[in-house]
Amino acid sequence: MYADDKDIFGLLTGALKDVVAFRPDDPLLYLIQYFRRNCQPALRACVIGPSLSGRHSISRKLSEAFGVPLVDDHRLLNEADPQLRNMVKTFHQKHKLLSPQLAFSLVRPVIFGEECIAKGWILCGYPQSRAQDAYFRKNGINAQKTIILTITPEAAKQRCLKTEHRSTCDPSEHAQMMTRELLYEMDMIGKSCAQLAQEDPACAVLDANREFDQVLSDARHFCSIRPIEHRPYMHRVLFLGRPGTGKKKMAKYLADHFRLSHISSGSLLMRAASDPEHEYCREINMYLNRGHQMPDELVSNLLCKALKDTELQGFVLSGFPCTQRQAEILDQSGFRPSKVFFFNTPVDVAREHFINREKEHHDKALSLRDFYEDEGARLGLQTDEYGNYGLGYQSQEVQRDMFGEQNNLFEDNEQSLREFYGNVEYEIDATLPENDVFGLLKYHLVHPQPLRPQEPQRSR
């Protein structure tokens, strides 16, 4: 009972997670600092409800009680760019709900900021609808707790009459107007929130008709209940997507940030092919020279040998698996990923990035010609028709053909891979700026897997 009440197992599990992931030079000192810093885990909660339900006051009090940043409309609008701010104000003036995409664009920069990632957050007033909630969850804004405040129109009208407003209209007329808005909000928000609460055990519906102190006490108690985590922890991350989406670059950034091993299947194959002493050198070169696809078992054996060195560190793997069969082999070898990121980019954009990337690599190789000549001679590599080692640059037509082959392989197997990794799948918009993509990846990696909203039932 004591261990459950104090969440001892959750605290120790979190400490071991960080020690294994970050490998500090002095583990004892690191653990002391960890317990001082993380005796109370960061809270991520949404407080939603119609007007006059007290959502702003409850959110502010929770923010003060748990020491986490408050994210409300005032802060969101202040930190939004002018164009987005004007669009949101236009929706507010017309008493319309924001579209899911617009609401996410407003909330994302603050929630994915360094402060909220490190300290947690209280999000006031969002999501406003069922559609917003589904879109937020799909794109990584996942609250540990959701508090839904309900209030009757009669109680809201009484509160409106008792509250001092700066409105020039008659208080009774203002109360009637607020009541009409309340009924609209309850229809748009209340019903969808009630459905959400039935499906999500991390939601609490609180009766806001009661005294404020009673509602606040229930809200604080609900937020103080922490889930106990029993799963062993290890970052095992896969990056999947069509070529040209920046997977390898982001994998390196993420691995460096969290001190994980970055493993690229393409790099492993090329290193093995260029090392005459490697056990798979001859076999890999045979398939490369014939232009045939590598057998699943060959690539899997090569990768598993590299993955075994990451058992106490974790890994970020890019370029593999490409098929469901490869995913099954990886799973059977004991390296099932904890999180899988699908990088989404339109085909035309990915193709352009792919061609430009190959040209950048070629230009960089030309600038390091002396290095390539020395290394090529040392490794005994063959030169091309111009006497250069690895400096050949294919024409754009050839590059397009290469992209087409790799892209077709991904598209043919994309659906089966999504179904195979459905429980740990995350969507990444790779068209966003690099800093936003990296921030999104960091957020996903330090937060739990989102609850997937159920699909609405179709009427027969």
UniProtKB/TrEMBL annotation:
Keywords, alphabetical: Kinase, Nucleotide-binding, Transferase
Which Gene Ontology BP annotations are present? nucleobase-containing compound metabolic process
Query: One Pfam family name from the record?
Result: ADK
The molecular function terms of the Gene Ontology recorded here are:
ATP binding; nucleobase-containing compound kinase activity
InterPro entries according to UniProt = Adenylat/UMP-CMP_kin, P-loop_NTPase
Is this entry keyworded Nucleotide-binding? yes
- Regions crossing the membrane: none
**Highest taxon above the source species:** Eukaryota
CDD domains named among the record's database cross-references: ADK
Q: Which family does it belong to?
A: Belongs to the adenylate kinase family.
Query: What is the name of this protein?
Result: Adenylate kinase 8
Query: What organism does the record attribute this protein to?
Result: Ramazzottius varieornatus
